[in-house]
């Protein structure tokens, strides 16, 4: 599995061979479609693979073909240890190979041999119905897959990524300063593609391929979609710098790959006409750096929650989770809320106490506002009051919930408070209690 992951330096479509001769995976399948030209062509890529595996101490047989089935057959049963099969040459190349080259079960291979069908070419032109009746549909399917008459896909060991950029070096990089410079360059390449597609990265993975076959992986995320190359490079550079002596480049880093695991739409935005700074964007960058440096769970933001109870309307979530549609709607509500504040009407304080604090209050019965209340041993005489704003218990919650009546009050000194009466005046239950929940600033 580690070797298959290291082969990701050539193509992201890398998987373990699910059909091994001994019952266990004993090979690696690479889909190099669109990648071979990056290494000088298929023949040059094959030579590089052979050289690298030999350097690791592995004896490898490698074949490149238009179908996974043909490549599998030639790598295991072909006359050449290294073969590049031209497109359309599958029929002739497989003709003289044994039927075991079709990735069949052992009992199927033995049955075909007993019938005198020892080579793949013996199956060409044979009626399919008798063979299918005796050996099942797998025989015909494997033959068609190897010859290209039926499609066959390769399931990669890792999920495919929408955007990626890679960079290879003639000599391995050992100094961290050079690696950081390379990360900055590859981040620029990736962000160029993202900007062209009007996308912004949200989750990324940096892979450093060492010359000894090891792979170092670093993951990072952003709270908002971005294709700012300098910002992404700074995040990964800080991660590498934090590793310090724990980062071991071995004999050198021979290739770097930066993958965008998740991307969101990012349309061009109009900047400030006065040339001022975009404080919201700078705040998001600060959130990204802190979260990636100290851990995603260390920095939180408030997200809206479906509840009418004030202390339950928000919940803390990791800041890198980003702004959800619900949070964007909540931001619109807050903008309207601030507008109402500027207009002179403020129904609720912007900040609440950590927990409602009990107060002693004198109020009109049964549902009048408080006339006098004592909080933290200080008495406050109410000069003005607005309300009530009634909040009934949430029916899906059980235990200890009562109706709340909230009042916006102002004392004789001009200080404004947000109080509520917990419960109602009735003869069949305990009388209501008063709590202070927030203070208007």
Provide a descriptive summary of the structure in words.
A hairpin with a 6-residue loop joins strand 11 and strand 12. The longest helix has 21 residues, at 176-196. The chain has four domains: 2-147, no CATH class; 163-267, Dna Ligase, domain 1 (2-Layer Sandwich); 300-342, no CATH class; 352-439, no CATH class. The protein has 441 residues and is an alpha+beta fold. The chain is 30% helix and 28% strand. Helix 3 (68-77) crosses helix 7 and helix 6 crosses helix 7 (137-147). The strands form five sheets. A six-stranded antiparallel beta barrel has the order 11-12-13-14-15-16. A four-stranded antiparallel beta sheet has the order 5-8-6-7. Strands 1-2 form a two-stranded antiparallel ribbon. The chain has helices at 2-6, 42-55, 68-77, 90-94, 106-114, 128-135, 137-147, 176-196, 229-243, 279-294, 325-342; strands at residues 14-16, 28-30, 62-64, 82-84, 163-173, 199-210, 215-226, 253-265, 300-304, 314-318, 352-363, 370-375, 378-391, 404-411, 416-422, 433-439. The two termini are 60 Å apart. The model is unreliable at 340-344 (pLDDT under 50).
């Amino acid at each position: 599995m580690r070797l298959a992951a290291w082969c990701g330096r050539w193509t992201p479509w890398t998987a373990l061979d699910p059909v091994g001769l001994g019952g266990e995976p004993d090979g690696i399948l690479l889909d190099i479609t669109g990648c071979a030209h990056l290494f000088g062509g298929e023949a040059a890529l094959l030579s590089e693979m052979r050289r690298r595996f030999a350097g690791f101490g592995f004896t490898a047989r490698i074949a490149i073909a238009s179908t996974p089935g043909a490549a599998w057959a030639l790598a295991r049963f072909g006359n050449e240890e290294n073969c590049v099969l031209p497109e359309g040459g599958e029929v002739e190349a497989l003709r003289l190979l044994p039927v075991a080259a079709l990735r069949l079960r052992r009992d199927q291979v033995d049955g075909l041999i007993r019938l005198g069908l020892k080579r793949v070419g013996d199956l060409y032109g044979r009626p399919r119905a008798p063979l299918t009746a005796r050996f099942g549909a797998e025989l015909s399917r494997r033959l068609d897959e190897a010859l290209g008459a039926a499609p066959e896909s390769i399931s990669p060991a890792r999920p495919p990524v929408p955007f990626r950029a890679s960079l290879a070096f003639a000599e391995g990089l050992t100094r961290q300063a050079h690696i950081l410079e390379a990360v900055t360059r590859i981040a620029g390449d990736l962000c160029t593609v993202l900007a062209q597609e009007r996308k912004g990265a949200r989750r990324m993975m940096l892979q450093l391929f060492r010359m000894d076959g090891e792979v170092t992986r670093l993951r990072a995320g952003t709270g908002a979609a971005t294709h700012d190359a300098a910002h992404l490079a700074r995040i990964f550079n800080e991660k590498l710098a934090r590793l310090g002596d724990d980062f071991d480049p071995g004999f050198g880093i021979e290739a770097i790959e930066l993958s965008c695991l998740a991307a969101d739409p990012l349309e061009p935005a109009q900047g400030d006409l006065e040339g001022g700074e975009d404080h919201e964007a700078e705040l998001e960058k600060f959130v990204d750096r802190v979260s990636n440096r100290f851990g995603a769970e260390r920095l939180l933001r408030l997200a809206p929650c479906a509840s009418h109870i004030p202390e339950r309307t928000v919940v803390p979530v990791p800041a890198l989770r980003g702004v959800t549609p619900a949070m964007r709607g909540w931001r619109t509500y807050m903008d309207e809320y601030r507008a109402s504040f500027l207009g002179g009407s403020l129904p609720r304080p912007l900040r609440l106490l950590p927990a409602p604090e009990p107060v002693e209050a004198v109020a009109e019965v049964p549902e009048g506002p408080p006339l006098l209340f004592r909080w933290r041993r200080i008495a406050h005489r109410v000069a003005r009051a607005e309300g009530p704003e009634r909040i009934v218990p949430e029916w899906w919650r059980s235990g200890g919930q009562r109706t709340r009546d909230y009042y916006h009050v102002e004392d004789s000194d001009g200080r404004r408070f947000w109080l509520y009466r917990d419960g109602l005046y009735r003869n069949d239950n305990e009388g209501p209690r008063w709590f202070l929940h927030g203070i208007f600033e």
